[in-house]
Amino acid sequence: MARARGSFRVLLGAAPGVGKTVAMLKEGHRLRAEGRDVVIALLETHGRKATEVSAEGLEMVPRRHVRYRGMLLDDMDLFGVIERHPQVALVDELAHTNVPGSVHEKRWQDVEDLLDAGIDVITTINVQHIESLNDVVREITGSTQKETVPDKVLRSATQVELVDLPPETLRERLSAGLVYKPDRVDAALSNYFRVGNLTALRELALLWLAGRVDEALKEYRSEHHISAKWETRERVVVALSGGPEGDQLLRRGARVARASGGGDLIAVHVTSEDGLTGADPGLLTRQRSLVEKLGGTYHQIVGEDIPDALLDFARANNATQVIVGVSRRSLLSRWLGRPSATSGIIAKSGDIDVHIVTHSFVHRGLRILPQHRQSLGLGRRIVGLMFSLVSVLGVSWLLSMFSSIQSAQRDALILQLLVVLSAVIGGLVPATVAAVLSGLALDFLYTVPVGTLHVLRVSDVVTIILYVVVGLIVAIVVDNASARARQAQRARAESEMLASVAGAVLRSDDPLRAIVHRTREAFGFDCVRILDRGRVIVSDGEPLMSSSIADDGGDHDTISLSKDGPSLELYGHTVEAGDQRMLMAILSQIQTVIEHNDLERKASEVEPLAAAEKIRTALLNAVSHDLRRPLASATTAVSGLQRMGDKVSEQDRQELLGVASNGLKQLTDLVTDLLDVSRLREGALPLSLVATDVVESIMPLFDELDIGPWKVDLDIAPNLPAVVADPSLLRRALSNVLVNALRFTPGDKRVRIAASTFNGVVEIRIVDQGPGVPDDRKQDIFVPFHRLGDTDNTTGLGLGMALSKGFVESMGGTIEPEDTPGGGLTMVISLRVADPGLRVGQPIPREERPDPSQMLGETTLNLSGAISDVILPLPGEGPSEERGLDRFINYGITRAPGDARNDGRGTDAADVSSTPTAVAQRTGNNGKDEHNEDTDRG
């Protein structure tokens, strides 16, 4: 008797460290306590104490040892496990590649052998090792996983369980050294274990598992022949007919889905199998967009019978409710044998709830009988009519000459054939004429009395009438079939045309011009123009007419979807009725492209205005607040020296001069920073991009900032590649960030500087252990004149981090704040790796340099205009260059206390205490501005 295959249980995790191995071992202990024979076939502890402790008490099959290229490697002993033959084998890391020389290349192949041997297997795997998700994981994390497991292996599992852990908790475990060794923690946190990466991988694992649950449910329903709906969650299907009532149905469906606790909204339009439909393509395009806005999905299916196709789709998707609109056909139309699709859906819905929604388009749709659309030209109809007359009369004359009454049945079929040919050639009217004439011919040739149109017997009258009716029915069927064939051929051509237009749009940099060009070529127009709000935005070709006619708008057709939307002007020939539908579909694509372009343009216009207004407000606040403090300090000190003259002691004189010097230095630093920020935005900052050694930029900071080795820890990866940077700007950016980190790090702790490379980028991480910054305030760090929680005016004016961001971005890099595990803030500066062929100090080729204006356009505020508005229009006379920042400084410092230009804002005797030392204490470095209420850190 063949041995039964073992059960296969998989523990799935989003990332390493979520606890899959420990969960596997706990399950092993539970099964062992129940009396099952459990062994550890393979366990990878990675040095984790918790894993080692969890494995205690479980039998472990000894590993086999293999010598490979001078190294002693170990791996699972497949034959040893099979020989031991436990009931349950615990196998860690299913996607692992075996040691060279093993029976199988991959561990999952070993597991297949264990299962075939009748051994139950419990194993672990991370989502990044699933074959079908490998490309997605690479896009998320930037790293390629070479060890993968085919999806069919996982789908064959008896049970797949998710071992989940929130990203923040996983990062805390990583920081605590519970996942990797301490020397790998920083690199892991900054690369693979970013919060965004972990969140995306977690969602990926949940979606994959949810998909497998859906597959298992469908498989179960199929195996047990269950067609009834299972209301695991509400799925609302909205049937779209392509009419104007679709908008109302979709909104009602969205409300029903929301009211049911977040159900799914699914919109469906059924197209007939022959590709012919009376739906308006423009309306369907608009309704598809509405579905997406409402958070639903749009589907277009093909079916011969609309109710059957719709309900089959609903049952396949386990829908619980179907929403349809009241039929647009009149009651009389339905009584005369044309039932509506709504009635068919209700009759066949079974256990699916059907909601009938009334609307304002009821009874406006179809006529009692379908309107016959003449698709043949006038010439062909005339030829068909002439054929019917000549052929029936000619054949009747021949039959009268050479036929007898015994061959009446044969002759009737000959005449019936003429009716069919007349229908094929000219349509319904010639076929009707042929049917009537052939009926009269049969009466004349074969009905007693022969040779007359008189009929003596009632049965003969009935026979002739039936013959004519049959002829008419055959003519109608043949005419409809011919019309359907022609329509199907046209529908095919239209589909090819739309596919061609769509392809041209996707491949073209100018979609509108591509659409217009393809439209002119396909329909043979001389000129096609797109008008929007009365203005020609795109034109292809030239109208073959005088300019006066073109200007007057004559001799052309215009097609539009709405009064306020874009329209098509078509020159060359009159638009045929059959082309209207196709042109409306093309126009709906044009409208979508125009709306997309308008949104992009508005976004690009609004963003700079908002940024400029924001920085204007901040700069005005700074001028009235931060600039005034050092200026007032220096002015007061100089005024005190002027008033007291020789009365001041040497000690007080030196103190006042120190106050003035310090104030002027602060003012100079601020002016330099303002000018640098302005130059950044205007592209006027001197930028010399070379291959730069990161270490050479970091080490000089210790001397420049007078930092002792007890304040900073260095962790720089060996063989760090050169980066694309301006060395001087990089040092200034690093200096600003480092000073900021030192200011907020407690005295008993150190700032940490780490540098590593990953995926073509070098990351410099400056880590402090201060109070940290809330997530909703992190971007405020880079806003000028903001100091998060810092009210000390002596520590700067809040431009340091804004400048650092501008410097780094101008070099093509990024700077982002992150939380420090355990508390604090980590600033991550990322720079592109330079070409390995370049030596340190060698200029970056021009074609590889980033464009500072493009790099700064999205993230850095435009300061130059605001600075000009606030700083430059100062009182005074003289050339404009004398009224800039230099004059701003001189204007505030050199004016005398009694100068009329003081405007009451200068410092007079009443404002100064009797001693110069008191002046210094009130306005010097130790003073606090009572208006300083900044709450931002910079």
TrEMBL record:
EC no. given is 2.7.13.3
Q: InterPro entries, alphabetically?
A: HATPase_C_sf (IPR036890), HATPase_dom (IPR003594), His_kinase_dom (IPR005467), HisK_dim/P_dom (IPR003661), HisK_dim/P_sf (IPR036097), Histidine_kinase_KdpD (IPR052023), KdpD_sf (IPR038318), KdpD_TM (IPR025201)
- Where found? Cell membrane; Membrane
What Gene3D superfamilies does the database record attribute to this sequence? 1.10.287.130, Backbone structure of the membrane domain of e. Coli histidine kinase receptor kdpd, Histidine kinase-like ATPase, C-terminal domain, HUPs, P-loop containing nucleotide triphosphate hydrolases
Q: Where is the composition biased (Polar residues)?
A: 912-926
Report if keyword Kinase is assigned: yes
- In residue numbers, the region (Disordered) covers 894-938
Q: What is its main location?
A: membrane
Membrane-traversing stretches: 382-402, 414-441, 461-482
Q: What class of enzyme is it?
A: transferase
Q: Name one GO cellular component term.
A: cytoplasm
Q: Which domain of life is it from?
A: Bacteria
Comp. bias regions, Basic and acidic residues = 898-908, 927-938
Recorded catalytic reaction(s): these are: ATP + protein L-histidine = ADP + protein N-phospho-L-histidine
Q: How does it sit in the membrane?
A: Multi-pass membrane protein
**Keywords linked to the UniProt accession:** ATP-binding, Kinase, Membrane, Nucleotide-binding, Phosphoprotein, Transferase, Transmembrane, Transmembrane helix, Two-component regulatory system
Where in the numbering of this chain does the Histidine kinase domain appear? 622-835
Q: Example GO molecular function term?
A: phosphorelay sensor kinase activity
- Name of this protein: histidine kinase
Source organism: Bifidobacterium vansinderenii
